[in-house]
């Protein structure tokens, strides 16, 4: 637990450096802002005009949609009666239609995004915006076409055949890369399309990345742990709240999640798989820490819907930054689909800020520390990440995601690791929305290990393991 001392110094140095940088940045900003504002007014006028045009267009579209929807509904009732029940019960709670209606929602959403973007631009990102405008002069790619593009990418991305889609970017394509990527680093692994996809959506699904052989080995180890044949230091074994008080059965039926398996050499192999780290490096850079590990064994729902995982942003749990140098790798250990509670993501939400989280008010109870995001746009398009064994999704810690209820009789298994650049630094969460989780974690550490003065940051420094490069600040 030595982060405090060493890092306080480091933090001091960094803070000074940052302040210096900020002053410089502010000066530069001031100089540019004048120029920027005029441009922005022009931009706003244009946007107003565009908005009017869109509204006009939307009326016509709505009428058309009404017809389409009726047809679609009939099909739903005839063919997918079960689905109606599924929809009602899932965390996802929205109607199938809402997902299909992305086009319409995207327009509204894009408008909202534009406004938020504008605000952010005013405050912080003047420099970046200017860069963006240089490489993407208005008119070259409108917001509308970006929304449509995004949808196209999303669908194309999810429909890919089950093969490894790794390719090297062709030299000729490199020139089409925008220069303002902020969520991924220059690398020779991701294609321009994959990179752009992550930038815009906050996740990237790679098919068939982890071998079935490895997954079977992880499964066997999981079963050994459940049978208590191995004792793993630091491991947290969770039971679903609905069965936590029922009679203990010492096999996987009782276990809903293994957390912090960094001391289990077999399970921890997952975190160091070279083909996984190759991707991770595109987001973290070459010095990589495995910060958080989980094997999630989503149980068949006991009837109280407690197998759901509320919509949340993982950054809520992390007292380290910057967010865009943190990434999660989540690998399906078997087929995951809407029936057994696949991941559900709100594409693009990684571009927002960390929101307030707390326990959702669910009648059947909520699992310990399963905080949900307080306010998010329920109309935001959702993507259900249906995956096959070995498929891996990489996602940003601000991406709002969750998972639905497991309505099957089987367990739904996935293994995951949150990675961070070793250059990330700890932050003090006092006075922030993360205070509630800090309090809970500290209480748990006290209860479990009788540790009184452990800090939130300590609990992370203690769990983190270097998997590549040098351990720097974390
Ligand atoms: C970081 C990336 C994103 C992460 C997102 C997440 O996953 S967030 C989720 C992360 N979750 C966690 O870190 C939680 C870690 N979980 C734990 O530490 C533990 O499973 C636990 C505290 C909940 C239970 O610990 P114990 O091993 O002491 O369990 P024990 O069986 O003795 O139960 C102690 C008390 O906790 C209750 N309990 C047990 N499991 C529970 C659960 N899942 N949810 C709520 N409460 C639970 C019991 O009913 C009992 O209450 P009574 O005392 O009233 O009888
Ligand atoms: O695997 C799941 O069901 C959800 C996992 C998740 O969202 C998380 O642990 O952050």
From TrEMBL:
GO terms for biological process: fatty acid alpha-oxidation. Keywords: Dioxygenase, Iron, Metal-binding, Oxidoreductase, Vitamin C. GO terms for molecular function: L-ascorbic acid binding; metal ion binding; phytanoyl-CoA dioxygenase activity. One of its GO terms (cellular component) is peroxisome. It catalyses: eicosanoyl-CoA + 2-oxoglutarate + O2 = 2-hydroxyeicosanoyl-CoA + succinate + CO2; phytanoyl-CoA + 2-oxoglutarate + O2 = 2-hydroxyphytanoyl-CoA + succinate + CO2; butanoyl-CoA + 2-oxoglutarate + O2 = 2-hydroxybutanoyl-CoA + succinate + CO2; octadecanoyl-CoA + 2-oxoglutarate + O2 = 2-hydroxyoctadecanoyl-CoA + succinate + CO2. It comes from the Eukaryota. Residues 86-135 have a biased composition (Acidic residues). Pathway: Lipid metabolism; fatty acid metabolism. Residues 1-146 are annotated as: Disordered. Its EC number is 1.14.11.18. Its cofactor is Fe cation; ATP; L-ascorbate. Belongs to the PhyH family. This is Phytanoyl-CoA dioxygenase, peroxisomal. It comes from Knipowitschia caucasica.
